[in-house]
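Dear V.,

Thank you for sending over the compound details. I've combined the ligand you provided, nicotinamide-adenine-dinucleotide, with the protein sequence from our construct and run the structure prediction for the complex. I'm sharing the raw inputs here so there's no ambiguity about protonation or stereochemistry in the SMILES, which I know was a concern on your side last time.
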Amino acid sequence: MENTNTTTTPRLLEGKLGLVFGVASQRSIAWAIAQAWAEAGARLAFTYQGERLRENVEELAATFGKDVPLYPCDVTRDSDLAAVFANVAKDFGKLHLLLHSVAFAPKEALEGQFLDTSREAFRIAHDVSAYSLLACARGAAPLMTEGGSILTLSYYGAEKVVPHYNVMGVAKASLEATVRYLAYDLGPKQVRVNAISAGPVNTLAARGISGFTNMLRLYPKISPMQRNIRTSELGGTALFLASDWGGGITGEVLHVDCGYHAMGMPPSSLLKPDA
Ligand SMILES: NC(=O)c1ccc[n+]([C@@H]2O[C@H](COP(=O)([O-])OP(=O)(O)OC[C@H]3O[C@@H](n4cnc5c(N)ncnc54)[C@H](O)[C@@H]3O)[C@@H](O)[C@H]2O)c1
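Below is the predicted structure of the protein with nicotinamide-adenine-dinucleotide bound, written out as structure tokens.
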């Protein structure tokens, strides 16, 4: 989506060190947020899910210079996570920012009825999309010796039924609760934990959801702002939350969805007249 943000990013994250999980392509929400964090002065390291994505992430990370650390990590593997945080300790020595922009559910669980979700699909969706935040926070916390900000991405399907979102909605509800419990545990260390609940963005993960293009069509019709969000707006909000400007905010789920979540009924222009 076109970036209409023409203002200069303030250097709110000068001297901050960040770790980004979840870049797969230049359309990834993680990439939009990484760009905002880097423009604001943060130095970043990235993980990539596996060899299949290494080249993409390498190419994107190279736009920030030659010495950007990259680590392989499948978040379902404790050994991968342990290696990532050992490498961050070696390369950075400490950490201020962590972005968790990771989710997955088997494709068949994002079609048809929620009622048919298998035990295995339920387990995988929760392991990759919710437990992984806890695992990442546990790895990052000892390195966040100067306080820190942990940020994840959620979706409205955690709060209300969104047809086809199914088990991912239940996993996002778990993720949002995980944000609150982590905020409580890490608050005394001045480590803040928050989520952005984003409106639909056309990414690789989103295209796995049956009927996703209908979502993109519906938001401009229902949201008060009558449009879809811009990924630069996710970057801007993530920058605010990561910076001292968001310093008193933790355990929060902030909607960046052009106000869609605030609507209780579609506008009357969308309702067909009675036959
Ligand atoms: N795109 C949307 O409309 C939208 C809306 C709200 C929230 N979100 C959330 O934003 C986050 C990022 O998704 P995106 O839309 O940018 O899509 P994306 O496909 O660009 O990113 C998803 C990322 O998850 C990673 N991932 C999946 N399984 C993994 C595993 N086992 N180990 C490590 N990494 C793994 C992928 O490698 C990829 O980088 C997700 O949590 C998604 O649910 C997306």
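A first observation: The pocket of nicotinamide-adenine-dinucleotide is lined by residues 22-25, 28-30, 49, 53, 73-76, 101-104, 128, 153-155, 198, 200-201, 203-206 (CB under 6 Å).

Warm regards,
I. M.
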